[in-house]
Specification:
Length: 312
Amino acid sequence: MINREIIRIKVVQLTYAYYQNGNKNIETAEKELLFSLSKAYDLYNYLLALIVGITHESRRHLEVAQSRANREGTEMPSQKFAYNRFAMQLEENKMLNDFIESKKLSWDDEPEFLKKIYTQITESQIYKDYMESTEDNYDTDREVWRKIYRNLIQDNADLDTLLEEQCLYWNDDKEVVDTFVLKTIKRFEEKNQSKQELLPEYSNEEDKDYARKLFRATIMNADEYQHFMSEASRNWDFSRLAYMDIVIMQIAIAEMMTFPSIPVSVTINEFVEIAKLYSTPRSGGYINGMLDAIARHLVQSGKLLKHMEERE
């Protein structure tokens, strides 16, 4: 689940913090990097568990409604949402339950939030359409949760506030992690029952090594990379650069120099997007031009053995 997009963002954040705090201990900083990456995986599981928490909340409401119907002799309420097949499968998922138990993560401590989000769901058109539909199968049950997540959980101010209070990393992580939760919902199959596989923390050991190598190369070769910047940017006003821009370019150069299989264009595009999120409004265009100039200078001088397409 922890892909290179998340890793690049984390390396930018941790490199910036490394230079900002007085204690420049690379071993400590590297541990902090790996810890912050692990917290992204915690969030992935925690957000999947939210579906289970909301389902439990719906059953509490169902029990109250059933008791009222028994007393008043009225029609029994539908159990369709409370016993949604997809949610029940997720509730029984072995990987999720093992992870939640090992990390002691639980939504039981957030009853007010569960009530509020359950109300938001039941008042939505998505829920009303689902409850009124005559379709009653696993695919429909899974799809309603995909819609609920995308429309009511993915951009939810109350959830964002709660996550920020629980973990200082999670607000930065959530936008990317949401995409993996939605991907996981889509991948669920009824036949897999409780053994349905969730996304692993790392798809392979190579990505974990990538995180370590990128961070170490950035810090250990800082003087060399900043020299490359000044060499290739004599026509640029270096003094006007935002400090975050320098950090982002330093990491981008580290990736260009350390990972021969990653095309230069991919590196530039990825770090330009990060600059748009984490630096000034003008940083994206500036960094795009700077990194292109730096990469071409390194290729021409024989320091970077990669191919670069000619600009039209």
